[in-house]
Amino acid sequence: METEDVAIENITGQRIAVEGGVERLVVDENLQPASILDAPLTATLLDSWISKPEILHIGCGTSLLSYHLREHVETPEQIHNVDFSKEAIELGKRQFMYWDTADLLSLHSILSVCRPASYFLIVEKYCSDSIACAEDILISVPYPLAFVSPPLPPSPHNPLNPTPVRPLPHTPAPHLALVTQPGGRWIAFSYSSLRFPFLTSSPSSDSETWEDAVPDELLMHGFSDPTRLWMLERKEAVEAPPEGGVGVVHRPKVSHWLYVLVRTRKELQ
Ligand SMILES: C[S@@+](CC[C@H](N)C(=O)[O-])C[C@H]1O[C@@H](n2cnc3c(N)ncnc32)[C@H](O)[C@@H]1O
After folding, report:
1. Rg for the chain (alpha carbons), in Å?
2. Which domain of life is it from (predicted)?
3. Predicted local distance difference test score (pLDDT) of residue 83
4. d(CA 7, CA 22)
5. Is the confidence at residue 132, as pLDDT, over 80?
6. All domains of the chain in start order, with CATH
7. How confident is the model at residue 28 (pLDDT cuts 50, 70, 90)?
């Protein structure tokens, strides 16, 4: 099928390719192409006991991964693309699949577009990286999402103030756990070998691990400990294909990181 590139006007300057009358977004995938996730996606979906597993693609942006995911499922309605960029979601809505604007750091926002325990698979490419670069957020306790066992009430002598927390993936991890089925997976592709510090069993030499832990006072007062919600099934370095053209003499080896997390059976409410 012949591909014709058609320029469209949008704020990010992306192109739309038209294939046989069907439009799809074309983006500069110099981050890494969608196919980089093929093997873990195939393996994970083969593991699913559900006939049409639903996939939540977080921080979809305008990545071709949204379209690529369709090759892994029976019907496009199994794919739900979410991003807080309205522009990206509006562009995506030209296609089948579900598309919604939501902020993964907000429980309210996620629950406005996702049903609890509905997805078998969360998938992302660089979304947690983006979250890790964001400003600190304030979390107030008691948190509206907790383990089924009741949390400690705040002491009247020591009322809890909102606690600043670095918005690392442990911030959305309970939100994503809520909407994922027990035994479901979270496949993440990242620039960082330390993207899920809360899943590290022992502190690494990098001091970031300690700094990035969920503050004890939050855990003591009901913020769900992500280590009880997600287990690390797999973490591996993926060597990025070299960038640069003819004449580039030395290209440093660049590794990206693939993570596969499993949702535990710990219940949330
Ligand atoms: C580095 S881009 C990656 C985009 C795409 N996944 C790709 O591989 O090309 C990170 C994406 O995550 C989205 N994002 C960052 N923080 C978010 C949040 N709190 N809630 C929802 N989306 C978020 C951004 O809008 C952006 O589209």
Report:
1. 20
2. Eukaryota
3. 97
4. 15
5. yes
6. 29-263 (3.40.50.150)
7. very low
H helical segments located in the chain = 38-46, 65-69, 86-92, 107-111, 127-132, 173-179, 208-211, 216-220
- How many angstroms does the Cα of residue 167 sit away from the middle of ligand 1? 13
Q: Please say if the pLDDT value at position 31 is more than 70.
A: no
Substitution site in 84, 107, 124 for ligand 1 pocket (most atoms within 8 Å of beta carbon): 84
Instruction: Judge whether 159 and 141 are in contact, CB under 8 Å.
Output: no
Q: Comparing C-alpha atoms, which of 35, 256, 64, 71 is closest to residue 81?
A: 64
Q: Measure the CA–CA gap between 57 and 122, rounded to whole angstroms.
A: 6
- Residue nearest to ligand 1 atom 24, measured at CA: 59
Distance CA 260, CA 41 (A): 10
Task: Check residue 222 and give left, alpha or beta (phi > 0: left; psi -120 to 50: alpha).
Answer: left
**Which one-letter DSSP state was computed for residue 103?**
-
Q: Are 256 and 162 in contact (CB under 8 A)?
A: no
Place of tokens 């756990």: 177
pLDDT band at 136 (very low <50, low <70, confident <90, very high): confident
How many residues appear in the chain? 269
157 close to 93: Cβ distance less than 8 angstroms = no
| CB-based burial, 199-227: b 16+ in 10 Å, e otherwise | bbeeeeeeeeeeebbbeeebbebbbbbbb
Burial class (CB in 10 A: 0-12, 13-18, 19+), 69: buried
pTM for this predicted structure: 0.82
pLDDT band of 243, cuts 50, 70, 90: low
Residue 105 contacts residue 137 (beta carbons within 8 Å): yes
